Amino acid sequence: MNAVPTVHVREAPAETGEGPVLQAHALSFQYVGAPPVFEGVSLQVAPREIVCLLGGSGCGKSTLLRVLARLETTHAARAEGQVDFLGQPLTSPHPRAALLFQQPSLLPWLDAARNVGFGLDFARQPALSKAALSQRVADALEAVGLAGQGGRYPAQLSGGMAQRVALARGLARQPQLLLADEPFSALDAITRAEMQELLVTLVDRWHTAALLVTHDIDEAIAVGDRILLMGGRPGRIVREWRVDIGRPREADAAAVTALRLDILTALHGVRQRAPAAAA
Questions:
Q1: Burial class (CB in 10 A: 0-12, 13-18, 19+), 272
Q2: Tens of pLDDT along 222-278?
Q3: Dist. CA 84–CA 172, nearest whole Å
Q4: Which residue from 59, 99, 104, 230 has the highest number of Cβ atoms inside 10 Å of its Cβ?
Q5: 132-143: pLDDT as tens digits
Q6: Cα separation of 231 and 269, whole Å?
Q7: End-to-end CA gap in the chain
């Protein structure tokens, strides 16, 4: 197994507010002419906290993440509830909330450095000098263990390296929140473990927060400070666990096993109660 690179980053300034970075109040969402995707969802994410949203396919967790990011438009859907980001109502995508998806979605005609810097000069982003932008990109690449690799193109990167570039692209925005939709699920087991460890390190050192959507119980236990179980049709938050297990988690195998069994039992109960999906 390759060692996770030592991370050297410029620490982002600590936030002075003590409230949650993200807070959702009684969210419900459905597409016009279709059953509700989820109903009555409330959650919050605190600074330097990783919250894992765990659930099976079809429970609405990916749609919930898009609604939280304000990527879902309402012209073809009905949405209720409120999303607050940094204590203010969030009605459109925010430059300090970065998104990560299962696929890195790198632009093949740009090298890694320019992919990382892509979007930093968009209208809603703070104006940066050329030197400041270059420093942002360099810091982000170094943070994910890719210092000196900025000249490589996506076709020259492994799957793990491409996902590191995608993570660096988010970090370059100096986000206060990472919203991640199963960003490591397409990676091999060894690379996935490395990326999970890297995510934990970066959330702590960059003073950010993260909401990670996953269907993998072991991933949720490995990285989560709290785990929210979403299930049913329409989807709801049905259970919550605070993960009071030290890191590395595998050092306390008994506690990890007990938590995993509890989550499996709860997940089985959710599946037993859920109505059968329409054919």
A1: exposed
A2: 999 999 999 988 999 999 999 999 998 989 999 999 999 999 999 888 776 765 443
A3: 23
A4: 59
A5: 889 999 999 999
A6: 10
A7: 43
197 and 254 part of one domain: yes
Q: What is the pTM of this model?
A: 0.87
Q: Which domain holds residue 123?
A: 106-174
Per the structure, the count of domains in the chain is 2
Residues of the chain with pLDDT under 50: 1-17, 276-279
Q: Scanning the structure block, which residue is given the tokens 């998104």? A: 99
Burial class (CB in 10 A: 0-12, 13-18, 19+), 216: middle
Same domain, residue pair 116 and 126? yes
Let me know whether 267 and 155 are in one domain.
no
pLDDT, the chain, mean: 87
Beta strands in the chain (DSSP E): 22-31, 36-45, 50-54, 77-85, 88-89, 97-100, 177-181, 210-214, 226-231, 236-242
Q: Are residues 181 and 278 in the same domain?
A: yes
